[in-house]
Amino acid sequence: MRRSETIGRDCRVAEIGNRRVKLGIVGLGVRGRGLLDTLLAMEDVDVPALCDLNDDKLQLGLDQVEAAGRAKAESYKDYNELLGREDIEGVIISTSWTSHFEIAIASMRAGKYAGSEVGAVASLEECWELVRTSEQTGVPCMLLENCNYGRDELAVLNMVKKGLFGELIHCQCGYEHDLRKGLAMDIDKRHYRVHHYLKRNGDNYPTHGLGPAAKCLNINRGNQFLTLTSMSSKARGLREWAVDNLGGDHPMTRVDVAQGDIVNTIIKCAGGETILLTLDTTLPRPYSRAGRVQGTKGIWMEDNNSIHIEGRSPEHAWESFDSYREEYEHPLWKQFLDMGVRGGHGGMDYLCLRAFIDSIAKQIATPIDVYDTAAWTAVSILSEQSVSMGGQPVPFPDFTKGKWISREPGPANPYSLE
């Protein structure tokens, strides 16, 4: 049996795993070094190999390893050389968006578990190649979608599985984050992200909201994304911010921005459910992932921290989600709170990385598998296509090739999202 199909039954949560796992990191920008910092605090994880094209970023990573009191890491500029090491079991990929899957494919071909950071993909063919490679090699690929391990998201998932919302009808989600300052300064920082805003127009960052919604709706295990339609607003926010804050001589005040300020995407699922996904990153606003789960028995909404359960909540009235979260706290978060929450993004980074590491240590499938990785990230390409055609629906590829109809749950372990 291939290791991607094996099932582990040890459901204990422990800070320290059963054995030491050796990881390599490719990409040492701000995100990569943040993940490295979290990994270096794990006593059962070694990071003996680092890779980046830039000498200054590579040195910062090497300095981190030394400051943590760990054995000196080897440095590489070519990720293929890192992948050639026999001791490396898994690779954390935190490079520029359109290189994630290229490196993930090479990692799987080298027999290394691939852990890819989130971000827009280059093409649907690359998604297909990712799936084909994992199927042919038996090596897992996990999208490191940390929001699937958020405290609220896991509590809501627990409630969904317990049937509190009844039959699910509709989900809403998104990435609503004022990124104007960071994007406008990206050119000065040699960062790639702003170029997606200058050249592309679609939902370029779908998975933070979509990942948790997909797990609530059993996507790729009994359900499937069928079609998608996207519409984009005009683009004003990014350039206006640059004019107001950087002065007329800054290059960002003279560029044309392709990316609309608001992109709304509607996905229809095989089970009849709908998902409304929103990208909103170039206008003033507080942060939100716009979570909403609605079924025949109730509704949860992130933005006002509220919930209504028929027969339990006062009629036609909202309740605070706080007491429900306490009652339906996911078992993983109960133990995480007892252990002491750690890692970036309120602990989500830590749990997501532990899910990846736990899978390597037990040689089992990852809780976010290659089919999830392909389907969730394909939204960025499909959205761009739909926007370019005036909002016309586009079909979703079935990356499982029909297996979604009867796929069984993934491995039973503390980090399962089934």
TrEMBL record:
The organism's superkingdom is given as Bacteria
Q: Does the keyword Membrane apply?
A: no
Task: Supply the name of the protein.
Answer: Gfo/Idh/MocA family oxidoreductase
User: Which family is this sequence assigned to?
Assistant: Belongs to the Gfo/Idh/MocA family. Glycosyl hydrolase 109 subfamily.
What cofactors does this protein use? NAD(+)
Q: Which Pfam families match?
A: GFO_IDH_MocA (PF01408), Glyco_hydro_109_C (PF21252)
The answer to whether UniProt assigns keyword Membrane to this entry is no
